[in-house]
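Mods, move this if it's the wrong board.
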Amino acid sequence: MAATSGSGRLRTRRRTAGSSNVGVLIAMGVALAGALAAIVYLALIRAPATLRQAPARAPEAADAPRKPAAPTASPNPGTGGRPKPAAPAVSLPKAEIVRRIDVLLAEYDAVLRDRSYGQGPGQKPLSERTARIDAIVREMAALGPDAVPVMAQKMREASTAAADVQVASIQSIFVRAIAQIPSDEALRVLGEALTGSDRWGLKGPDLYTLKMTIVNQVHDHAGATGLAMLAERAPSETDFRVRGRIVQALGKARSPETAALAERLAVSDPEPTVRVEAIHALGNLGDPAQAPVVERIARMPVQNEKDVWVKQHAVRVYAQVAKEASLGYLEEVLRSDPNSNVKSATITAVQSVGGDRAFALLERIANDPSQLEDIRHRARQAQEALARRAADPGGGQTPALEEIKLDRPIPLKPLGRPGDLRK
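Not the wrong board. Structure tokens:
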């Protein structure tokens, strides 16, 4: 019995222990299930936020636009920060340079002959052709300084190699490429082209087109050194339109060479359009020290209608440079100059100065019985404009100077009829 009772107790303890173990396992399972449920719950709560953040992170990954690479060539100080094309990492043999230039030239020739570009129905836009030509120029320039002598020689030979394609067009693409290569040799070649192109077989519009291309490209790409080269070449340039464009470019750039060249051309150039451009170049310098120079030019004798046109611009530029200090000379012109067109321009110059002294001067002219009625009327109109300007700073503006066209004869005409100052 004792043994039986002991065995029963043992079996009872074992059953109790087993039950306890089962309970522990069940408790652990419940705890684990709770933990999993909590994890799932948190994941479900955070998932929308994560998904909302994904589009914001996407540009930082595969879809992000790449930042442009830093230029490999130093920007030219005269180009507004535009970098020059870099030279090839490895110097190419001359034969390879010639081959590449010939390939690019053939591509350029094909673009020029392609009649699928135009403005008609079904034609490709001309902007695409321009983009293709610009790409060819960049590829030529990327050949670097070693390519300059090759392109210079091909420019000289273009007259016989261009077939029925315009010679100036072939030479112009070389000019554009050379101007983008930062080297002394490139500038030397462009200077030679500017002065020696008369010997390259070009005539008429082709010669003019090439020279203007050279001036524009040097102005845009060659910086201060290029502008100095243009100033040196200008006095010997035979085409007055090109001389005018050179002095215009120097004036806009405020080049150090502007003052000396502009004064020389304004005084002695035989073409009035060049003289006018030179006068405006002096004005564009914004230097009061140029006021005596401009006054001296304005006081030069008037012998014909072209001189009248030049003086009209000179008195207005003088007012622009000297400001209120110009009023004494401007009154002298209004009192003594015999030409009504010059007086009309002078009234506009007085109006541009503005202020009480200018208003009083206009009043004296408007009430002067010795003046022509047309001049007196213009003076009154200018007074009214100044009064409107005083009441409204945005009103009563001075009429702009007549635009200068260097590629056609000068339009010799009066500045306008009475009342035109209102326009």
